[in-house]
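Components:
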Amino acid sequence: MWNTIFPYLLSGISVGGQYALIAIGYTMVYGILRLINFAHGDVFMVAGILMVYISASGVPLFISIPLVLILTSLIGYLIEHIAYKPLRQAPRMSVMISAIGVSYTLQNLVLYITGGLNQLYPTIPWISNSITVGSASTKIVTIFTPFLTILLVFALVQLINHTKIGMAMRAVSKDFETSQLMGININRVISVTFVIGSFLAGVGSLLYFTNYTTVIQTSGAMPGLKAFVAAVFGGIGSIPGAVIGAFIIGIAENIIKGLDIILFKAGLIAKPLGLATFSDAFTFALLIIILAVKPTGLFGEKTTDKV
Amino acid sequence: MSNTVKKKGLSREQVLSAIVVLAFYIAVFVAEQIVPSTSMLFTVLKKGATYALVAVSMNLLNGFTGIFSLGQAGFMLIGAYVYAIFTIPIAERASVYQYYNGGIVQVALPIFIAMILAGLVAAFFAFLIGLPVLRLKSDYLAVATLGFAEIIRAVFQWDKLGPVTNGSNMLRLFPTFNDFNIRNANGDVTIYLSTLVPMLIAGFCIALIILLINSTFGRALRAIKDDEIAAEAMGIHLASHKQLAFCISSFFTGIGGAMLAMYQTTVQAKSFTTAMTYEILLIVVIGGIGSVTGSCISSFLFVACSEWWLRFLDQKQMIGSFEVPLLRNGFRLVVFSLIIMIVVLFFRQGIMGTRELPDLFRRKRKKTGKEARA
Amino acid sequence: MKKLLIAVLCLALLIPAFALADGTVKIGVFEPASGDSGAGGKQEMLGMQYANKECPTIEVGGETYNVELVYADNGSSTDKAPSAAQQLVSNNVSVVLGSYGSGVSIAGSKYFEDAKIPAIGATCTNPQVTAGNSHYFRICFLDPFQGTVMATYAFKELGAKTAYCLAELGNDYDVGLSHYFQETFEALGGQVISDTFPTGTSDFTSYLTNAAMYQADVFFCPVSIAYSTQIIQQAAGQNVQFPILGGDTLDSNVVANAAKGTNVTVTISTFYQEGANAAFDEGFKAWLNSDAEAMTNNGGNNMISAVSVMGYDAYYTAIEAIRAAGTTDSAAVMAALPGVTLNGVSGAIAFDETGDAIRTSAFIKSVDTATGDWVFVAEQTVE
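Structure:
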């Protein structure tokens, strides 16, 4: 039984780690701006496209990887500056629409530049190699991802808890207006948030696309949506919540893909039911169940409306 | 519009508005008889009418009730499937349901009954979904409805439901807009109605929504939007009002879905993605959240820009011997999305703000009194 | 001001935009240039563009017409296909070529039918494309045939007893071909497990694990190029033991490139094997080498994909039909099409009563993982 489930768990943990890196961006931005940044998944995709083009121009990896991360952070900063900052005083709905607009624009821009063709992601040595673990063969990146994810999350939590800017971020997410009155430079805090979120999405894209090697303009949509669901699942605004949510969703999704055979081997069903059809839908079903039971997610803070 | 409700009879503005709408319909009818039926104009009008209906019903939720739902694509899917499943001629079923021995549904309903059924089934699903979801607040509600749309999409694609839904395969050969054309014995078209009828259907449904918005119920919805707690204190039952608004909106979205099926001539669950919901949301915002007229105008503009006017940007263009740079496949969408960004960033009120058609005439009469209107 | 703008825009809605230049015959190219099938669609278009370059004019009724290709990108999706089809219809094309991908062809079909414009499919192999209508024709073989070829090959040549089929949900081509594969394979005495994945999936590791768990001997995935390249690469990462089989969509240098340097066996059925017509190969390669954009659209090298050959043949079929009709009127071209015969690069082309090409053989080829080239395996004939 273990041998049957193990490969799916392995895939799940790996993809969960990648979702986690994207989900952090969602959850941090939401924590501060109360904005669902729909463009975040596309920033992740653009990071993939940048890597493709930069590598194709012959730049060696030790330059291209940092370059991609810097450019991705820069894109995150610019998006905030151009599309969200002018709307700071506008209703929340306007900002969210702006996010959808940015997502639309990024996708169409990439469609235009790539001509709509799938781009093959460059091979990053070592982590692309195969490795056999127990009953499964996989790429090293699969094993590597969860460790790197946890390391980065640890660093991020340190940053938030023990630095000045981290304290400012916590203050802003607690109370936007009061922290402004206390002399915190809100715009700087928000910019830093976007830069960190985009940087992590960039790291996520390196890992994700090394595993699943094609990039196309819609590549960011599904991972983005799943990561977002993970963030809501864990209680949006909470970083540990987002990470745990992402791992749960990654694992659940892969178990569903193999559920037919798992049930079959366990003797519970006689023939396949085609349950793999629900691999994406199950993520959302899980979300709705959680929201119905605990409306603010696993680790979400309980908010009370003042009358 | 709100301050005219109490009056008996119609105000001057309403009469003028009715004349404008009527003139528009007559223009469509005339154009349809004169202009070759292959023109993109009719494509835009048909798809625009469909999107207008869906946008207005989304506006009923987002703009008038303050329920931020992102489940439109799911309800359209239900509408489109119900319509298609119940109208495919029995003789054609063997070929459509080729992998499922002709399917198990063996009736073919008249078009309009199937459309109403489409709306009812969508409303029924909305009722079921509404029970757990409508308790949620703003963003959580949005995400939950978005999730439901995705779940519905997967359920309709499930192989085990194939005898009903044809699995993930296409449904086709059901009556389309072109079947509204009146033909003579030779099968040649004598009177073109393939654009006018869908526009009338959409117009009729939108009129019903407007009546609803201006009723007591509609005012209760607006009260909920402004302040839930205050509305509750005034004796408005929140849960039932929200539930009813959600079902009504989904009913019309379902009919919109049936119209989309007729427009597309084929239906496939795969194409009802969140991107479709976002498109409709953009239409609502560009038109002005809280304006029915705005939603209608912007859906026609949106469809015309994306399908027709900007098409030339996708092809190489020569001015004399000079080849215009940048133009190639995909450029249209880049320009289009930039236009959307500009509208979103600089024209936040959208085309109409919260004004309606009659307000435009009112403004002409006395400009200063306009601002005072709530 | 805003009101005026709206009024102007609304008026513009009513201005019909159509113009037909004299001395030009328009051929509509209904192909995906973006989306999952974008790569394949572009390669099919290359064949048409090359043919158009080779034969840019046509003699109709004693007058010389320029042939203009009008493109409409159906975006590989059935919801974008209607407006792309209508764009071609509103351009008054005489005949339509395409599309790569059966689903989009079916989705566009009704619009061509209503406008009485014939369509010639180059590589859309699903039977439903031409069944039950008189305006859609095709020059390739059909899925029942292709499914039989691959199932027979897997069972008899590879000795497979269990096959795992993977198809994209809602893709008529994938689902259809898997269905016919399963039918034949089970009739031969084998066992088939089928799975489907949602559009936009990029993580196929669990599906590959499924196949391994079921102890499948072959992995049949007749999916778009976008997905097949991912499957092949992930299969390489997982060291899978079974060969990957596919249909004609996989016949692309992009797929061959993905398999290059791995230990995955990729075997497919297709329409054409490079080298069968030396003159065409040479001319086409020379054109690719001279045109940077064409080269990019061909995936960066000058290997010839079967779909390009089919696109080329489809173009000449259309030219023959217009010539036979003696007019550029689309209804007349439609009437002339059933009688058209052609000695194409991919073989002799003639239509049967449903509008399908009469073909009895398919090529089976496989990737040489050392060089990244397609190598000929067998020519399979089924009665």
